[in-house]
Amino acid sequence: MPFIPRLVAPVLERAARTFPAVVLTGPRRAGKTTLLTRTFPDATVVPLDAPDVLAAVRADPRGFLDERRGVTILDEIQNAPELFGYLKERIDRHPSRRGRWLLTGSQEAPLMQHVTESLAGRAAVIGLWPLSTAESPKANLLHGGFPEVVARPRDRSLWFESYLQTYLERDVRAVLNVRDLSTFRRFLSVMASRTGQTLNKADLAAPLGLTIPTITQWINVLEITGQLLVVPPYFESFGKRLVKTPKVYVADSGLAAHLLGIRTSDELERSPFRGALFEGYIAAEVVKAQGNRGLRRELYHFRDHQGLEVDFVFRQGTDTWLVEAKSTHTPLPRDATGLTRLAASVRHRATSILVYRGGRSRPHTDALAPGVRAIDVAAFIEVLNAR
After folding, report:
1. Range(s) for CATH 3.40.50.300 in the chain?
2. What are the two backbone dihedrals, phi and then psi, of residue 350, each rounded to the nearest 5 degrees?
3. Which one in 163, 192, 255, 288 has a CA-CA gap of 20 to 30 Å to 19?
């Protein structure tokens, strides 16, 4: 499979010149190990999901690390949490050695707990998502961004089925003791059908016969393993009573489409979920662009009790961006109503954008309404990733 250069690579190189350790997090199969081996070709990869390697770690963790020479990639470090204390010991012994330890992990919350406890101030933490459209035009609404799907889109259905099976068997059971994996699989499909909606745990629990605490645990599993984007409500009220419930999206639009049974572009065009999938695709592109610049994720939605709603609010440079995502080729002025109303309440500089699918009648620089620009998705992604 040909390697696609990743936009986060310069951030990764800079981090390795600054810190003794670098932690690269992200969903399984997002390309973490490939990125590290391409960026640091002389590094040795140690796969910590291999049973024999794990046995050696647990038998003698100090001796295991003593055997490592040069730059070392400890792949899927969450499988060997006992190594963190010994890594701290080695880093403190030789604090001037930069980029010596490169760690990957696909379970962000448990991993970050160990990093905070043992490697605070000693490690840079960088997130890697599947490919963005800025990195490959083949990463799109239907296929999503997982590198193997982008490389072989004809095999997408088989790949996603295999991925789900691997994810269920390995990651889910590693984080949480889910006994009924068939119910968890149905839960994933239900989550896909609710993508783009505000989170209603009772609504999710009822069709599956589950309790709300169980739903809470399962959502947490999806989030910490990078399968779900939870977008919180914007924290500034603008003088309005806000709905304080987050919105949720399956993080990869290709996986979401697969879970919904959407296999082709024609099926996507006819699907009642097309709008929600496009909204989730835009959410993921924003998060990827932030991560590729080494920024922390800051993405919010806005909704008040009077029905005013805007899909996304986030910082871009020095501006606050208000963004509405519409899965249409021809945006109309009425599509910008929420943006216009919310912009009037913003107390500081804001940029209001309606992003649409493009390709037909409207040039990407058109003013759709006073203070609102309609931008096709290709132009939006270009601006989003401008350095």
Report:
1. 9-127
2. -135, 150
3. 288
Using alpha carbons, list the distances in angstroms from residue 260 to 30, 186, 195, 279, 344. 21, 11, 11, 15, 38
- Considering the domain 9-127 in this protein, what is its CATH number? 3.40.50.300
* Res 84 pLDDT > 50: yes
Half-sphere exposure of 71 (CA within 13 A, CB side): 16
For residues 302 and 342, give the distance between their C-alpha atoms in angstroms, rounded to a whole number: 9
Query: Which residues, in sequence order, are bridge partners of residue 326?
Result: 356
Q: pLDDT tens digit string along 89-127? A: 999 998 889 999 999 988 665 667 778 788 888 999 999
Amino acid at the residue 223 = E
What's the mean pLDDT when you consider all of the chain? 90
302: CB partners within 8 A, 6+ apart: 233, 234, 242, 308, 309, 310, 313, 322, 342
Q: Is 258 exposed, middle or buried (0-12, 13-18, 19+ CB in 10 A)?
A: buried
User: How much is the average pLDDT of 184-199?
Assistant: 95
Which amino acid, one-letter code, is at 367?
A
- Residue 60's CB: how many other CB atoms inside 10 A? 11
Residue with tokens 């083949």: 138
pLDDT at residue 341, as a whole number? 86
